[in-house]
Design a protein that fits this description.
about 110 residues; globular
């Protein structure tokens, strides 16, 4: 079955960078668009951005210019490079198929001084 396992979260300082990874299995990775979403404490899921099968990306305004999504179809992995992190980026980050809700546990990112 479809499995998406996020990793790479942690505690960082404002302004730091962090790269999240998502390992995928159970489906034809290269044939699917994927997305990153996040959930801040006490709030609902928030779309961060996505990448289609051609590698074309789209981002929420609040991460444009700071976050970059990439994919490696040979390794079935999705990445989220996050730069210039802000405290408001704190949350649990999930990868998911573009048309679905997250299936995994996510990875926690905390931005705090």
């Amino acid at each position: 079955q479809v499995q998406l396992v996020e990793s790479g979260g942690g505690l960082v300082l404002p302004g730091d960078s962090l790269t999240l990874s998502c390992a995928a299995s159970g489906f034809i990775f290269s044939h699917n668009s994927l997305k990153w979403v996040r959930q801040a404490p006490g709030k609902g899921l928030e779309w961060v951005g996505e990448i289609d099968t051609f590698g074309t990306t789209a981002y929420a305004d609040f991460v444009k210019g700071r976050f970059t999504i990439s994919r490696d179809n040979a390794m079935n992995t999705l990445a989220l490079q996050m730069n210039k992190l802000k405290p408001e980026d704190t949350g649990n980050y999930y990868c998911a198929l573009a048309g679905e809700t997250p299936r995994g546990q996510g990875t926690q990112v905390t931005v705090s001084s």
